[in-house]
Known about the structure:
The chain has about 800 residues and is of the alpha+beta class. Strands 1-8-9-10-11-20-17-16-15 form a 9-stranded antiparallel β-sheet, with helices on one face. Strands 2-3-4-7-12-19-18 form a 7-stranded antiparallel β-sheet. A 6-stranded antiparallel β-sheet has the order 21-26-27-28-33-30. Strand 22 and strand 23 (about 485) form a beta hairpin. Helix 12 runs parallel beside helix 14 (about 515-535) and helix 18 (about 640-650) runs antiparallel to helix 19 (about 680-695).
Amino acid sequence: MNIRKPKTALKFKKPSGWWGALYRGALPAGNGLIGAAVYGGAGQDTVMLTHGDLWWQGSANVLPDVADKLKDVRKALDENKPRSAEGILSNALITKGYRPQAAYPLPLADLKISMPVEKSVKEYMRAVNMENGEVSVTYRDGSTRFERSLFVSRSSDMIVMEITKSGNKPIDAEFSLEMHDKTNNRTPAGVSKLPEAVLSKYESFFMYYAARSDNGTDFGAVARVSHYGGSMEVKPSSIRIKGAEKVLLLIKPFIESTRDKEWKNLKAALAAEKLTYDKLLKDHTALHGKLFSSADIDLDAENRDAFVEDLLSEANEGGASNALLEKLWAFGRYLTVCGTSEAGRPMSPYGLWCGDYKAVSSSIRYGSLQMMYNHMFAGNLPEFCMAVFHTLEANIDDLKKNSARLFGTRGVMVPSVMAPGSGLLGSVDPEVLHFTGGAAMMSQLFYNYYLFTDDIKFLKTRALPFMQAAALFYEEFLKVSENGLYESSPSYSPGNTPGNFMEGPAAAKMDICKNATVDFSLCKELLRNLIRGSEIAGVNKGEIDKWKDMLTRIPEYQANPDGAAREYLHPKYGDNYVSRTMPHLYPVYPGTEFSGNDTELLKAFGLAAKKRAGAATGVMTGQSLGRLANTFVRLSDTDSAMEMINNIVRSCTMDNLVTAENDWRGMGVGASNPWAPYTIEPNLAVTNALQEMLVQSRPNQIRILPALPENFRKGAAVNIQTMAGAEVNLEWDRKKGTLVIKLKSRRNNMVDLTLPQGSKKFKGPGAENYDPDTLTVRNLELPSGKAVVLEVKWSV
């Protein structure tokens, strides 16, 4: 492996060490649809093969109409009987036979590699070159150095592996394609079923594998094995290469087909492939590298060439170094580029690398997609959001059925879990039924795509129609109470039971309430964006007054007696500070309702975040720590944000730098869970938090270095995108007291540019509109396509 930039390389001293589930510690590679995970053993290695569209064990039927039960739910809530109300809709659906089952990612196969070792292995290393998506395993056996390198080609849609050596000892390797590790069929409830009709076949130069999914179709792979020098032996269960100088494997997977057809077609395609490993890698890198390198952050870190294990050990002792933070930022981008695509399914918490047959917490959850996708906008990767938009639009009729048959309304309802192969309600659990804000959350992604790309056609033809359908649901679902304000009933603050229902002998989880703050935050954001977007596009003129009137009926945020923002805007429900989730902080993050100005209301949300971070330490997950990190960044509370990132590193980060949902090692920060589901959500949250420490934006507003950590003494940010339609490039040096800001707008534009604390004066346009009290350059003119440069003198 040729590592050009140590900053974007991950080096490891050891192979995967997660006993009984080695896939968890494997190094991931992928092209957005096809995945590979390299375990890294020197003598015995496994590469898990996956496919983003291979899911199983899910089922769904026709969603019955239970909207007539809504009045019973509301009556019970009005009578202050939420525990009676909680099961009404759920039981009605079950009575009518609706019990959808979530689908799970299905591992495709394992490539097994055996290379006998004569001496004790020395100088072992496995590595990921994030710039080109290449994973390698290198080691020395005696005087000979061996290297196995692998990538998943974006240009050729196949897995490519090459084995090379330097030294006298030839390559002796045995290969097989097998069903993925059977020990990974454990679940908390027992054991999952396994694929059936498993068959492997071997002939000169080719290996074949197939198995049958529960829908009756086959999946599998065909591999071509080529060798330079030496000989090949075809055995009943493997292919063995002896005495070779170099070995090349090309693997093409297939899903939802028949084995005979795919084996024939894929063999022909692989047989026709004439390109070398280097040429295949070059073609792939041109595509992968363009995406991965579309933005950059440089923290001028020392020790970039260190092994990840050493960086993690250092973080456990004193906190994440700049070298580790650079790699974490880049790794979130790498997992995105490798793990999802424009045309496939929305991103799963496991990315492409699920190695369990019935994986815990593997469902695509529309309540957490915002946190997974947020970094893509500022990070210049907005095209990956298309998978979400395509999926929602393709299932729009089902989303309308959810609205009509559950709540008797028009418009769309996006459940936090959708049924397999549809947009219908994916679970009858009360926590899914009673959260009605999914469509508003997805509307933010639609609108943000427009803000970050200026794609007016997308705004007119895709974003606004979806947003209108989401607003129509609220128009008919929200009821006007006696005080003239909206009431949301039923409601739910995701993940939480109101604090006053967690007391006494009847204390238990309760997934229903009235007037969760998050409901109104979402509705307000949706309506404001819908009005602003319609005015920009010059459409929906007859609807705008109605939406403005709806805004006047949304209740104001409230504070508890301690000054913290309330999670519920109904007096019967109290905050539960000892909870890992904090949906009521939505106006701060991922919403953009507040601009970062020091207002009393913003202080209330800041205090709520502080109280949640302090009281709920022992129950936090990687996802909730990531959400808090981003919330504190928006609040310019840099120390708290870094504390949350360090907690993720210490309690939820596995040895391969992929995060887990829980603390499985008993570090005392976060909920302890021996299952600790594999999830890349915290990885992506850290990437976003680090970006927003450097640049934050709203429409027509950009904040520079709003939450810069003290140890970020010198650095640069390249091609950071903003909601204001301008790209930002930064260079700063605390020691010299300099900051250079370069802005380039996609259109003639004016923005308010807020400089960091300590800014003294600057050279460049806009001096006549500079407000030193707020450090803001008002109405800074940005001509289309031309760079505007400000050189700031800075004292920090």
